Amino acid sequence: MRFTELLRTGPLFLDGGMGSLLQARGLRPGEAPEKWNLTHPEAITAIHREYYEAGTNLVATNTFGVHPERYTPAECEQMIRAAVACAEKARQEAGGKDLFIGLDTGPCGKLLRPLGTLDFEDAVKGFALIARIAADCGVDCIFIETMNDGAETRAALLAMKENCGLPVLVSNAYGADGKLMTGGTPEAVTAMLEGLGADAVGVNCSLGPEALAPIVERYLAAASVPVLMKPNAGLPREQDGKTVYDVLPEEFAARVTELIPKGLRIMGGCCGTTPEYIRALVKAAEGQVPPAIEPKEHTVIASRGQTVILGRDPAVIGERINPTGKKRLRKALEEGDMAYILNEALAQEERGAEILDVNVGTPGVDEPALLAQAVQELQAVTDLPLQLDTADPEAMERALRVYNGKAMINSVNGKQEVMDAIFPLVKKYGGAVVALTLDEDGIPGTAEGRLAIAEKILREAEKYGIGRKDILFDPLTMTVSAEGSAAQVTLDALRLIRERTGCGTVLGVSNVSFGLPAREVLGSVFLTMALERGLSAAIMNPLNDRMTGAMVSFRTLTGRDENCGAYIRFAGELPAMQAVAAAPGAGTAKETEAKGLRRAVVKGLCREAARLAGEALDGGRDGLELVQQEIIPALDEVGRGFEAKTLFLPQLMMSAEAAEAAFREIKARAAGKAEGAGAGCPVVLATVKGDIHDIGKNIVRLLLENYGFEVTDLGRDVAPETVLEAVERLHAPVCGLSALMTTTVPAMAETVTLLHEKAPWCRVMVGGAVLTEEYAREIGADGYGRDAMAAVRLAERFTRENA
Ligand code: B12
Question: How far is the CA of 197 from the centre of ligand 1 (A)?
């Protein structure tokens, strides 16, 4: 059977774990398994053969860790070729039928921006190298696995699709909360990967089969491509210094095969599983055939961690990031003022926008570069799906590449030239495309004319293999003041197109009232009429209470608002909205600025945070007071969100950066103001080994310097020996250590012990969120400070006592 055929029919059996089998054969802790392709090819071949003999159809090559971020291109090539040769030899030795080889690839080990430092296109380049070698080696498919960040998964898949024609299976690693480390959900990840052309999607690692089952079921409900599952043999735990797994082969097999009637068709094992597990799996699956895959026909778009299904409940697309008719936004775009755009985004999100339109096209800007930048910055501060809005195909492609999800693409239309430019992008990157019902002859004056264009667009899309579910029609809102029947024609076209094509619909509603007074009165009624005719999404201003009121009321009146909860919440916010509207010259930016520094830090707005801190200082506020009353509470709020899993690492990072930006302002103003009891006394300061949290330590430094201490700041993740070396060199009487995680307190204890032993003259004070007075005493510290002021008092006391 051909590989792609087996992929679709199933069941297709994958292999199991590799690491523990290699360790049993002598792989030392810390040794790279991929090097064994070169040094111990017979061992790798034997493991693959054991899996084939146990019933595996597809073995994954021993190349999980091979990546140009870790090895030179020549080394990558050497290891991949050797790995494929091992698998090929095993296949020949096993000699059975339906035996295939997948080139295995895992995370590159670096985090992508904004989480880390790796640029998206550099990540693509790394995986592209692997793709080219794999294609040349003649494997049957690529197996991307254990990916815990959606952006890196996207980079890997894109690279594979651009550089080899092989089928690609993509498997992500989820936490027990059903989310990727960076917040991706099964539905959002599936939408993104299917859009990019993954041939199978699914999950591996992290959890045992039982805990993974609900996540797999969510995949099965969302995916139109085959779904795979490769769980661990339970949760790993330590026993006598060894990692052990609790789920035995029969139980493992029973749990996994339970999902076959629900549609699971590709299965294997991950950490802790052996050929015995695969044998049990094959046996348990005997005679079971998964049901045919049901294509999911809903229109879905996604961000990193959210999906919006269009066509069920009407959605609000925030229209405010569009310079047409907006002088202030145009100026911001010309000046590259991203803070303004980010604020617009957050204000719309707070007012209920579910999707954000992003249009940065204005004369004099480099639209492709600016749109890509705006998309990247926006997705660092908001997780709402974006509608990429541009008439420039180059700008569209640049933005689509970096968009971490399945975007709404605005727009294509019936002009041949536009369809030729946009449909290939929709096909390649995925997305739901908004199609305007106009063509070379303009906008038809009748509903039937607009329907005819819609049908033409559908025929053309079909040539690219773009399904109806990924097309939404915009029947075009015309200005009623210019043509009395304009609104009626649009509304008729909307209904006709919905009924005849079954596709979703989108309308930018504001245009209807152009040139008339009290525009939102007319606009809100037009919106209601469009909603009544089945509009899927309205591009509108969510900050306008009439417009939002119409949308909320429509949902309430059509039974979509349980206990009228949304309506009551909306009504509760009305006075605030009216106040905004009534204030002279009021706009989003002004309104949100008022909420201040704390919000900027929570939302991760760096420039905004720095600016607001500067303004507050100019206005006479005390720097330390700002830290205590705004910055620390903001970080605490983010920390709570992180703990409750409502916020994810990217947001935590952005908030930390915003806090640091504000802090830099405060520090710059404080420079040279030193006065106090420190009088040049040396203090060594460090965040302990393994801990990279340094905001608190930096505050401690600022205050100590303010009080005249001569601080040597060793930074973060500092080894005990390095701290000792500095204390000895400076003969420092005081040392301050900071630790923020339970896991790094032992490193703090180690440092304290070392200092007491080798530098007995030095008094050690400790601090950081996880510490307590009692714990500080237990680890032998000379003092504990709960905040930066306490650090100053301790340093003063120690120097006094030492004198
Ligand atoms: C910002 C932040 C980050 C930023 C750090 C950026 C930076 N440059 O510091 C980033 C995003 C990088 C980050 C990463 C991680 N973080 Co973090 N992070 C936080 C967060 C939200 C705020 C910390 C902070 O800056 N607080 C504000 C400062 C001013 O407070 P402070 O440090 O306590 O300092 C004050 C006092 O303690 C005292 N003090 C501090 N040091 C000293 C020293 C001396 C000598 C004295 C006397 C006093 C003193 O004075 C300071 C001023 O008043 C906390 C949650 C929270 N609310 O604490 C989580 C938190 C600390 N992080 C956490 C985790 C788990 C992580 C990660 C492991 C996440 C991950 N899965 O990858 C990584 C760890 C990476 C590593 N190896 O260190 C956990 C730790 C859980 C635990 N109990 O062990 C927390 C508590 C979040 C949570 N609730 O789960 N994080």
Answer: 39
DSSP code for 61: P
Whole-number Å distance between alpha carbons of 548 and 566: 11
The CA angle 273-279-285, to the nearest 5 degrees, is 110
* Degrees, nearest 5: CA angle 775-778-781: 90
Decide if 574 contacts 351 (C-beta within 8 A).
no
Q: What is the pLDDT of residue 202?
A: 98
Kindly report the pTM of this predicted structure: 0.80
Determine the distance separating the centroid of ligand 1 and the alpha carbon of 628, expressed in angstroms. 15
C-alpha of residue 439 to centroid of ligand 1, in Å: 56
Q: How far is the CA of 618 from the centre of ligand 1 (A)?
A: 29
Residue of minimum CA distance from atom 7 in ligand 1:
693
Whole-number Å distance, alpha carbon 768 to ligand 1 midpoint, is 8
Distance CA 212, CA 220 (A): 12
Burial of 311-334, coded b for 16+ CB within 10 Å and e otherwise, reads: bebbbbbbbbbbbeebebbbebbe
Alpha-carbon torsion, ordered 317, 322, 325, 327, to 10 deg:
130
Q: Residue 365 and residue 357: Cα distance in Å, rounded?
A: 18
Q: Which atom of ligand 1 is nearest to the CA of 652?
A: 11
Query: Pairing between strand 299-302 and 307-310?
Result: antiparallel
Measured from the CB, is residue 643 less than 6 Å from ligand 1?
yes
Whose tokens are 């087996």? That residue is 6
From atom 38 of ligand 1, which residue's Cα is the shortest distance away? 787
* Residue 327 CA: distances (Å) to CA of 207, 229, 321, 338, 430: 53, 52, 12, 15, 33
> What is the structure's pLDDT at 416?
98
742 within ligand 1 shell (Cβ under 6 A): yes
Binding site membership of 542 for ligand 1 (Cβ less than 6 Å): no
Distance from Cα 691 to the centre of ligand 1, integer Å:
9
For 56, list phi and psi in degrees, rounded to 5.
-65, 135
Q: What integer pLDDT is reported at residue 800 of this predicted model? A: 86
For the CA of 744, the nearest atom of ligand 1: 84
User: What tokens appear for 99 in the block?
Assistant: 């035996």
- Our answer on whether the CB atom of 765 is closer than 6 Å to any ligand 1 atom is yes
Give the mean pLDDT per block of 10 residues along the chain (803 residues).
Answer: 90 94 90 96 98 98 96 97 98 93 96 86 98 96 97 98 97 94 95 98 94 97 98 84 86 97 97 96 96 95 97 96 92 89 93 96 94 94 96 98 97 98 98 98 97 98 97 96 94 98 96 92 97 97 95 96 91 68 43 66 89 90 86 88 81 85 86 64 95 90 85 96 97 96 92 96 94 92 92 92 75
- Which residues have CB under 8 Å from 50's CB, separation 6+? 21, 275
